[in-house]
Amino acid sequence: MPQILSSVIKIQGLTKEYNNKIVVDNIDLEISESCFALLGPNGAGKTTTFLMLLGLVKPSKGTAFILGKEISKNLGEIRNKIGFLPENVEFYPNLTGRGFLELIIGLRNSREEKKEIAESFLNWSGLEKDYWNKKIITYSRGMRQRLGLAQAFAGNPKIAFLDEPLSNIDPLGREELINKIREKRKEGIIIIISSHIVLEIEQLADSIAIINKGKIRASNTIFTLAQSFGFKEYEINRVNYKTEISINDLYESLSSEKDLFLDKPKVLSEKLIFRTEVSEEINKIVMKYEDFNFTPISGTLSKIYKKIIKESNYEKRA
Amino acid sequence: MKKEHNIRSKLNYEKVLFSFHFKKRFISIRTLVCMILSITPTFYILINIQAFIDPNTAIDQNFLDGAIFWSGFIGQKTMVSFFRMIPVIIAVDIISGEFSNKTAMILYSTVPRNRVLLTKIIFLISYMLFFVLFSFISFGIVFLFKFNLIVSINFLITGFSLIFIDFTFILSLTVIFSALNRNTIISFLIPLLYINVEPIFVSLEMELLSYSYYKENIYYSLERILFIGKSIIIDGNIILSLIVFFSAPIIIFLITFYGFKQLDIRTN
């Protein structure tokens, strides 16, 4: 049996054809980062790729390996290690949020304390306690998304696949969900996200792949992509208040290293903006500080994304 | 890793899903409707009791077994299409329901689809068994009070088996449409249509397409054993009837398993 241990997910020539229309076209991809995002417009092939990885849709050609195991041969084993939040998640409408979560926990883990586990995940998801015992049919879109997120992480998966987790959520809710996903990433769960909302993804993902018309158009770490497209502006944001370390303390720590910045950084109350050519090096340092997040300056990924999508659309017409 | 594996019971998926369906379906309007349908044959006989009673014949064990139970309850044709709706009602949305409420994606990414399907079929057969038993028990109680007699055990077992296998066939027909078409309306209408057009097949000399035709062949053969005590006359027709009657539900279930395994599970 082939063992691919270097990457978490390895996709080889994955193709899906529906009624003679190719929706995923010979994808090759290696995912080894702790948070990976598959970006692309609606209908680009993101969901189909996810569903093939989860064994819900059979590939027309190609294969994929998850945690070193080939999905077509080891789906049962892989299934126990993954969580999944589908796009526009829905549930049994007459079940309560607690009931649904207990069902999923029961299916993933036969231990008796499923009530306690369900409560802890409901609490973590931020779903109002008053709604835990109410029928899901009464839930708003945002509440369902929270419950969906809770069930995706409820079996303590090694990998969580989140398909469009931020769609249909208001901006405040999005920020909260991003923080919750970030929390899980820090706990060591590998997060695989598909999205067309680029702005928020750049705060979350370590690496991305951009897909359009079924083909991967670009794939790399966000920092490498930003560099290759000539972007040098980055920012460090405070995203948590778990430690006493301030943005100034972090700035001083970074300043003690040689030649990190191209010019003098702008220090704002909760943000540090600067230009650099050694983003990977800075990222390694910032990773040690759990309250801070290092990304290309807001909007960079969006610019890269638009450029790549436009080019791939133009390619097709030409 | 091994410890984690040991904790997980081998039949955990089945146990959890079975109890989930049991809780979800048992206390429901569906159960009430099916309970009403399951007593319709008994009440039909009770209302039309004069048609079964010959004034010159004494009401004894033979009369209860033969005229009332075997001909009236097992072999009656008037209320049969209502009675046979029970498997359709209980199975109609067993798979398609999860596709229309979009829970399928979460369920099938968590549990292997063949184990979901197997659990659902076992649950449906148990659920159906409850209604068949309820129907027989209600018949037994009603006629115990009316004639102070209980149907003979050989008649009971034979009749029960006939009804149970017939219901399993209709159940399999409903499940295959629910699983492969994933449309609740289609999986309701097609088995219902089949139940109702079966007599037309016979009148059009297309009886080989009618499951009831095979059931009737077996019914009359069993009648010969039960009443006259003679063995079944083995001919091509009865062999074919036995094969189709017993194997059709199994074949349909196997096709359902195969087809469902090939399906792409997506709800949008």
What tags apply to this protein structure?
heterodimer; A: 318 residues; alpha/beta; Rossmann fold; Alpha-Beta Plaits; 2 domains; 6-stranded mixed β-sheet; 4-stranded antiparallel β-sheet; disordered N terminus; B: 268 residues; mainly alpha; 14 helices
Which residues of chain B sit in consecutive blocks of at least 5 with pLDDT less than 50?
Answer: none
Largest sheet entry of chain A: 6 strands, mixed
Average pLDDT level of chain B: 89
Rg from alpha-carbon coordinates of chain A: 20 Å
- Fourth-tier CATH superfamily name of the largest domain in chain A: P-loop containing nucleotide triphosphate hydrolases
Summarize the SSE layout with pairings.
The complex is a heterodimer of chains A (about 325) and B (about 270).
Chain A: E1 9-18, E2 21-31, E3 35-39, H1 46-53, E4 61-66, E5 69-70, H2 71-79, E6 82-85, H3 97-108, H4 114-125, H5 141-153, E7 159-163, H6 171-186, E8 190-195, H7 198-201, E9 207-212, E10 215-221, H8 222-228, E11 233-238, H9 247-255, E12 266-267, E13 271-275, H10 279-286, E14 292-296, H11 300-317
Chain B: H1 2-7, H2 12-26, H3 29-47, H4 49-52, H5 61-74, H6 80-83, H7 85-91, H8 96-100, H9 104-110, H10 113-147, H11 153-180, H12 184-203, H13 211-228, H14 236-262
